[in-house]
Every structure is written in structure tokens, then in C-alpha cells.
Amino acid sequence: MIYREYGKTGKKVSLLGFGGMRFQHIDNQEECVRMMVRAAEGGVTYFDTAPAYFDIKSETVFGKGLAELRRLKLPYYVATKTFKTTEKTIREELEAQLKRLDVPAVDFYHVWCVTSLENWVSRKKDGILDTFRKLKEEGLIRHICVSSHLIQAEIETLLMEGAFEGVLFGYSAYNFKTREKAFNAIRAKRLGAVVMNPLGGGIIPEHPELFGFIRRPGETAVTGALRFLWDHKDITTTLVGFRVEQDVADVLKAMEGYKPRTEAELAAVKENAGASFEGICTGCAYCDDCPQEIPIPRYMDAYNQKLLSKDGDSAVKQRLVMHWNIPFSGAGNCVACGQCESACTQHIPIIKRLEYIAGLS
Ligand code: SF4
Ligand code: SF4
């Protein structure tokens, strides 16, 4: 296992992290605990959950798993999150989380799922930052972090504010272009950088033909996708949402045989991505200057699900609602000026795709 410094915290965590959002049998607590133990025996020390994963069942099973890790004297850090914004509601939630997790403090506590800078400003007005700082002083949380769904300059702006010690965000071989700017702030502020969704929500294993650019001889799409992230020196931890025990064994094996690329090799791999993604929005955001203020890269990312996911329209809707938190109808504000299509490096028929999204209900 490789360990990296989590920003300026003085803590070193495993490059492979355990995500508690995909257990296939959440009600089989013994199996879930075995998975956590197996991962910890393989060197994993970063365990991430949230209060809404399987309702509260993921946090509950984490409580059992962490107790077992303590019994076995296996080291760990635990991360979780809150959507709450006021002091009273955050304290209530944290108190319940500490009980479920069976720990005296959360190591990495996240302001959960910031979907826009406006959303962040509104949470700050409710006093979220002051509350997090108080909780840290009281020793109930150890580090103040954020989980972000922002892209491009927005994520950089959020992190440059200097409010956080670490960030959790989606980053993979599928969407890395949209989030690359985050690393400017991660380096400048020396933040811990935890990446989630390393397999692009299943798109990478489902479409290995698109991801030939990351694979070296003998690598599967999954192994190649993980190693592509591990090559990135500014990533502290890569969360994998393990489903069953075999997943843990498979990913630990990918770590065992891992030989990092040089920075020049990694840059060349990224350079080759464009050719594979014909017709697919790569999130480069060259189009993102719409006079109608339509967040085009977000809508186009959602449309990608129609092309890549087996769930078609419902995957598009889910992406718009659950991930981006933007309405279908917003796509209808397009006046077909054509500016975005002229700028698009992938020659995406943006206007047609927006029309389709606006017609969803
Ligand atoms: S064509 Fe539509 S989406 Fe594109 S820039 Fe013009 S108004 Fe915006
Ligand atoms: S639609 Fe085209 S220009 Fe806009 S983000 Fe996607 S690939 Fe880039």
C-alpha cells in the first residue's frame, strides 16, 4: 500500500480508500465488516461514509467495522458528512453519527455536496463554518473538509477560499478534464484530495473500448482506471465503493502490481483521451460562456449518460437531479445562437441535445 500526506494535517492516509456507498448486502453486517477488515489488512486506512448511504445503515455498519479494526489493532481514519447547515441541526446530526460510528470524533468531517457557489454562500450564512470550527475546537471533529460537485473554475474558487483542509470530489478517466482546475487550489492551499467515483459511475467498466488510452498491457479497464488516478501525485486517496468481498481482493491486487507512470507519461495519456471520446462531452468547458447563462457542460455531461449508460433517459434525469441539481427546463432557455457549438472541441450538437433535455419530464 502507498500512503500519502493528507494536506497539512500531519496525517498520512492510504492511497486506496474504502467507500461505504455501494455495499451489495448492507443488511449482512458480518459480510460488510469482513470487507472492512480485509481492506484494512491490505493496508487501507481511510474509510468514508455518509448519513444517507443506505439511509443510515452504512454509518451503522461502519460502527461495527471500526470496532473490529480497533480490536484487531488495525489503524484507520473515518470520514463522514453532513447536509445540515445550522449549529443546532449539525450538532444533532453529529451526535447521532458519533453514536452510530462508535467513535469519540470524526477524523474528516465534510460539508456535504456543494453543488454551486451560491449554495455554499447560503450555507455559510447559516453559520456552517463557525459551527465546524467550534466542533473542531471541542475535539468532536478533527479536520474540516468539503465534498464538492463543482467543476472548472468554480471548484478552484471554493477551495482557494482557504476554509477547508481537504476536499472530496469526483475525478476519473471519464471526467478528469472538468475537474483539473481543482488541483491548482489543492497545491496552493496544500489540501488533502480525496477522489470519488473513480470508475465514472460504472461507465469505465461498461465501455472499456473508450478507455483504451489509460490501459497498459495486461490491465483491465478497472485496474487501468484506478492506476491512472494513483499516478496523479496530488491525489491523496481514491475511494472505491466496494460491493462484495471479491471487489476488495481485486482492487488490493491492482495496488500490489502498481508501477507509477512518470509525470510526462501521465500527461501523454491525458492528451490521448480526446480521440477516444468522439461524440461525448469531455467537460473541457470551452463552450461555457452562454449568453443565456445555461451551464452547458453540466447539461452535456448529463446527456452523456444517454450515450453511455444502459439506463438511458432515466440516467440522464438522475444525473441532472441528483448530481448537478439543475432543472430539465433550464435547457429550454437556449436561443440557438450557435456560439457554443462553434467553440466545442468535440463537435457536439449541443443545441439538439439541449432540446432533448428540455423535453424530459
Ligand atoms: S446555442 Fe444555446 S446554449 Fe449555445 S450559447 Fe447559444 S443560447 Fe447558449
Ligand atoms: S460540449 Fe463541447 S466544448 Fe462544451 S464541455 Fe462538452 S466537449 Fe467541451
Structural class: alpha/beta
Order of helices and strands: EEEHEHEHEHHEHEHHEHHEHHHHHHH
Multimeric state: single chain
Q: How are the strands of the largest sheet arranged?
A: 3-4-5-6-7-8-9-10
- Taking the alpha carbons of the first and last residues, their distance comes to 47 Å
Which distinct ligands sit in these coordinates? iron/sulfur cluster
Give the strand tally: 10
CATH topology of the largest domain, what is it called? Answer: TIM Barrel
CA-based gyration radius: 20 Å
Using the 3D structure, state the CATH architecture of the largest domain: Alpha-Beta Barrel
Largest sheet: 8 strands, parallel, barrel
Helix content: 40-55%
Helical segment count: 17
CATH first level of the largest domain: Alpha Beta
Please tell me about this protein's structure.
By secondary structure, the protein is α/β, with parallel strands linked by helices. It folds into 2 domains: 3-269, NADP-dependent oxidoreductase domain (TIM Barrel, Alpha-Beta Barrel), CATH 3.20.20.100; 296-358, no CATH class. Helices cover 45% and strands 14% of the residues. It contains 17 helices and 10 strands. The strands form 2 sheets. It has an 8-stranded parallel barrel with strand order 3-4-5-6-7-8-9-10, surrounded by 6 helices. The radius of gyration is 20 Å and the shape is globular. 42% of the residues are buried. The mean pLDDT is 91.
Describe this structure in a few short sentences.
The chain has 361 residues and is of the alpha/beta class.
